[in-house]
Amino acid sequence: LFSLGRNSFGHGQSFAAHVMEFATGRHVLQWIGLAALILIGSWRQIAQSIYLPMYGRPYASHVLNVLSFLGLMTVVGLAYWSMDHARLRHFLMAAVPWTVIGIVALKVIAAAFVLRASRRIGFLRNNEILLIAIAWIVLSAAILAILLSLRWTRTAPLKTLIAGAIALVPVTRLALAPLAHNANRHR
């Protein structure tokens, strides 16, 4: 659609008319899905850092930033190292789905502990925890539907896409906000 060569617009033809001429319904749905993933990603970034300022301890933010940086550098280092070592590359590619599933398992366990602590303190009741779980499932299913509609995810294993959709919903961090605020208020 966007190229450095001559364009295929007719004289007086608008960009929208050109797109409508060549775009199919599947293309439109893929672009809508990609836009939705970008919105979900930005919402996730906002929710990811909501509880740290409420905690009121600056060292917590610094420690989390250092740990995130070290994790990112480990991934980048392994990717760079695997460029020269085929066996490592094959091992890492085989380990990606299981790593994502492990991250999701840890996320579900953390969410269970955080929601249980919120219920014990009195912030949440059982029916509210049930609503949170239903919302998590519905949002994860919607993200999975978007991921399945995109062309570049067709080669990914379904279990990886399901785990990735679950991991994109920041339930644990949102549930941590009231607990962090409570911890800051009572120190």
Q: What would you say this structure looks like, in words?
A:
By secondary structure, this protein is mostly helical. It has 8 helices and no strands. It has helices at residues 15-22, 25-48, 51-55, 58-82, 86-121, 126-149, 158-168, 171-185.
In total, how many beta strands? 0
Main beta sheet strand tally, sense and closure: none
**Would you tell me the structural class of the helices and strands?**
mainly alpha
Q: What characteristic shape results from the CA principal axes?
A: globular
Indicate the proportion of strand residues.
under 5%
pLDDT < 50 runs, ≥5 residues: 1-5
| Average residue-wise pLDDT | 80
Over all CA atoms, what is the radius of gyration?
A: 22 Å
Helix content: over 70%
Alpha plus pi helix count: 8
